[in-house]
């Protein structure tokens, strides 16, 4: 298959794709688009960057153009940033055909979003939490959902976990039965949940589920041009090490992403690096949505050259200029490591990934090396002497200051308050009947 | 002047009665008299006032130095004027910065006193004792520190002024909805070099309109002035000072801890170099070296990939929700 026209897309869509400089379908697109057009459900194994957004957007748009009615499709993603990225692509594809896309994500005005949903947009791109909330708050406004033809779960391995379970159930309540819609799943790893779906018997009156490269995605290939390095370090000088690395000759002005495991670390590092005059920005769940969007934009535009982020940024971010990925903390899940280092060396470019290994991380590193089937090499250009000479003193001071500032500004208060609120709510729900009895007495 | 005589009589009663902000005037005739007196005073100053108005949109308002006629101690005078300048400009800065200045601005502070000789110290302390502070529970809309200074300097020499600017959010909202762009102030404090003057000012101005020329901007604005008995400027900043001190001491402690950790790291690096050197030498002589190994507690690995090893799998309690979803999905 050499062109989009050959795999069954209409002219207007081909033109729109052409305008975006997308001429040849990728393998996943060539394989899935015709089958989805035939009405089959699909579980696709695909990494971000393999063109899967078009793989589900194109057939949906084709069908929609034939018979637009109500809310035609719903796309669910695990992160808000990813939802925005997909919404942008939908808007670009449908620019000529008056396509209405609603972005329903947390952290923004719920009233505006409810109003948008009420107007029956053609497609809804959403994060599950907010969509479930809207459905439960305003059941009347989502009646348009009863004719949904397509449900897409992007990053299904992440969505089909317990943390999203409740919200997904809430979303599915308003959406018609599986026999009346098509379901498209895209995943980067085969988890138990995905496996159960795969092995599920086909419902009556439905075509068998299309499985695309699902078996192959477990054999990950780290691109050859991506060099994997590590630095052995005690945990207490990690910050100094990071500063030294970011200001070293090799990476002195390259754009890099630093991955950490916790929001708090991300915030501390951002403050430290800013005090040391590195152009830095951060992305983690403790930031208000406005700042999250802004900081990502700043990094994309090159206004900041270092992005400190949690695993929030490990998937779906497509920033071609990234040269270096630093694993400041080693992830618990070896697959997260693969996602993280996948932010660099994209589309045949060169890239480096350097991991900081403390004595407590050996098991994790061994698990990762086993998973990727490759050994990391020690990065020797940074020596202890250099760190002591150039970074240690300044970083220590910045670290203390940053911590004090965060204490003063109550950085952890937000999450603590949220936890407390949830606890209280749970308590209240559990004990509500008892309490009311007491009141009556 | 007539005003001073009046105040002299009332000094004792004033401080007691002024506990309430909106205290009633003892005698209306008296206040009327005073107002007259003030107005006549005002006329002589009116030209200055106009000038002042013109200068109002300057960002850094300079304190007026008209009142500095009695030169007791030149050094202190300088100090004071510095404080004035700082305080007058404060209203235009961010609140945080203001706090910093407010704290750092202890002209009568202990740090400076230490350097003084005993006589000077005594002199200073006496000076501090003489000062009086008035509290302004409301500031006429858009009135600036310069204007406040001008109004109060009728009654005597002014030390420092601090006005608390309105909330930035409120200001932003007002500007957004097309309101006045000037900065408003919520409340304020004003220090008089002599508490007699402070009492007089509170007694005269509290609950009264400002008066002056009929067309002047603040003619009809009512002032709320309270003399704070036994209150010094330092009391205003003491809480902040304390907080700052606590913060600094904590910072010091953390820094020293951090330094110790750094030092430990440096020591370790040196030791490792030494050990490596020794090992090298030993290799030449004999081959078997006893390998000392430490065991560290390892962080766990967990994944929910179905192909992974059983012991690496993420264990989670089974919630009904997810299975429900899986059943409904396809």
From TrEMBL, chain A:
Gene Ontology, cellular component aspect: cytosol; nucleus
Lineage of origin: Eukaryota, Fungi, Dikarya, Ascomycota, Saccharomycotina
Record has DNA repair as a keyword: no
Biased composition, class Basic and acidic residues, residue ranges: 398-415
Taxonomic superkingdom: Eukaryota
CDD domains, per the entry: SF2_C_DEAD
Gene name linked to the record: DBP8
Pfam families: DEAD (PF00270), Helicase_C (PF00271)
DEAD-box RNA helicase Q domain ranges (all copies): 2-30
InterPro entries per record: DEAD/DEAH_box_helicase_dom (IPR011545), DEAD_box_RNA_helicase (IPR050079), Helicase_ATP-bd (IPR014001), Helicase_C-like (IPR001650), P-loop_NTPase (IPR027417), RNA-helicase_DEAD-box_CS (IPR000629), RNA_helicase_DEAD_Q_motif (IPR014014)
One GO MF term attached to the UniProt entry: hydrolase activity
Start and end residues of each Helicase C-terminal domain: 241-388
UniProt motif (Q motif) ranges: 2-30
Keywords, ordered alphabetically: ATP-binding, Helicase, Hydrolase, Nucleotide-binding, Nucleus, Ribosome biogenesis, RNA-binding, rRNA processing
Official protein name in the record: RNA helicase
GO biological process: one example: rRNA processing
Entry annotated with the keyword Cell inner membrane: no
UniProtKB/TrEMBL annotation, chain B:
Database matches in CDD domains: RRM_ABT1_like
Biological processes annotated in GO: endonucleolytic cleavage in 5'-ETS of tricistronic rRNA transcript (SSU-rRNA, 5.8S rRNA, LSU-rRNA); endonucleolytic cleavage in ITS1 to separate SSU-rRNA from 5.8S rRNA and LSU-rRNA from tricistronic rRNA transcript (SSU-rRNA, 5.8S rRNA, LSU-rRNA); endonucleolytic cleavage to generate mature 5'-end of SSU-rRNA from (SSU-rRNA, 5.8S rRNA, LSU-rRNA); small-subunit processome assembly
GO molecular function: RNA binding
Domain spans labelled RRM: 132-230
Keyword tags: Nucleus, RNA-binding
Location in or out of the cell: Nucleus, Nucleolus
Pfam annotation, one family: RRM_1
InterPro entries hit by this protein: ABT1/Esf2, ABT1/ESF2_RRM, Nucleotide-bd_a/b_plait_sf, RBD_domain_sf, RRM_dom
Cellular component, GO annotation: nucleolus
Principal cellular location given in the protein's record: nucleus
PROSITE patterns (UniProt xref): RRM (PS50102)
Compositional bias (Basic and acidic residues): 7-37, 285-294, 307-320
Region span, Disordered: 1-93, 276-320
Stretches with biased composition (Acidic residues): 38-58, 71-93
Keyword rRNA-binding in record: no
SUPFAM superfamilies (UniProt xref): RNA-binding domain, RBD (SSF54928)
The family this protein is said to belong to: Belongs to the ESF2/ABP1 family.
PANTHER family recorded: ACTIVATOR OF BASAL TRANSCRIPTION 1 (PTHR12311:SF7)
Name assigned to this protein: Pre-rRNA-processing protein ESF2
Lineage: Eukaryota, Fungi, Dikarya, Ascomycota, Saccharomycotina
